[in-house]
Automatic annotation (TrEMBL):
Entry keyword Lipid biosynthesis: no
Primary enzyme class: hydrolase
Domain CheB-type methylesterase: residue ranges: 149-335
One Gene Ontology term of the molecular function aspect: phosphorelay response regulator activity
UniProt source species: freshwater metagenome
DNA repair is among the record's keywords: no
Protein name, UniProt field: protein-glutamate methylesterase
Amino acid sequence: MVDDSAVLRRLITTVLSGDPEIEVVGTACDGIEAIQRVAELRPDVVTLDVEMPRLDGIGAVEVIHREHPRLPVIMFSTLTERGAAATLQALSNGASDYVAKPTGAGNIGESMAAVRDELVPRIKALVNARRIASSAAPKEVRRRERRLIEVPPQVLVVACSTGGPDALSKVLAGLPPSFPLPVLVAQHMPPVFTAQFAQRLDRVCPLDVREAAEGDRVEVGRALVAPGDFHLRLSRVAGQVRAGLDQGEKESFCRPAADPLFRSAAQVYGPAVLALVLTGMGQDSLLGARAISEAGGQVVVQDEATSVVWGMPGSVATAGLADEVLPLEAIAPRLATLALGPRTTVAR
């Protein structure tokens, strides 16, 4: 557990030590000490502050990821523009996920509860994913029956969470400039982060990527990212599909969630939906993928081997709802092919 604040080190250590499945094997107060302690202690997971003296979290995670590429690292970040930018850079440098630091606005009990609710599930999911990946027993995928696709896709909807920023960046960067579908993205992120995330994607992607706003037109050449704390849904107004934002109930403990986006896409486009489920913790997108499948649309998911956590794509694949299960590097070219029009697809 790495943080330059002694108060936070004590708080987080107390919270984590209260879980019988977790042992805090060591702490560090800056990035240089963190690198040394990781080499000495060989932990299963590291929590890493973003802003620290001597060497910050951005630099530390780059070294840790290079020397221990399979070691999960969770960043602690402030919910500010500066904190968001630094955290997204850390994710690009190899961090697996992030959680928000306690704000200090509430009492110590509230801060401890917030850390416990956000951090403990991530630690367990990332460590379990690492153990599964190193075993010879991947989850069984139920094969979807071969079927003839008769309707060309008119939209691509994407779901992602843990590990999603890096995976999505690679997928969108791999699409051709002439990609013929509008793209809508639900990535589990808080406010501030999604605007920064969209800006980063826009710099690497041939599409025009922006954070979605109420009433935005859904059109070819554009990718809209659901803003933090808002669900993104689609509707057809006077013949034009537009984005709508709302703060309805969280789904799968998330807002934005993928399920509302996927369901609304199925309602608006029917069988002309192409859905992609990337790496992520939990089962968000499962219900939405079922709605798309029942409407006759196509569903592609990332495979277990290349996912940071195979929760979201795995839930869709093991439910028999995936037309194709692909490694990350194969997804962009396959989407470009599927977007061209009807063809026979086979679950893989």
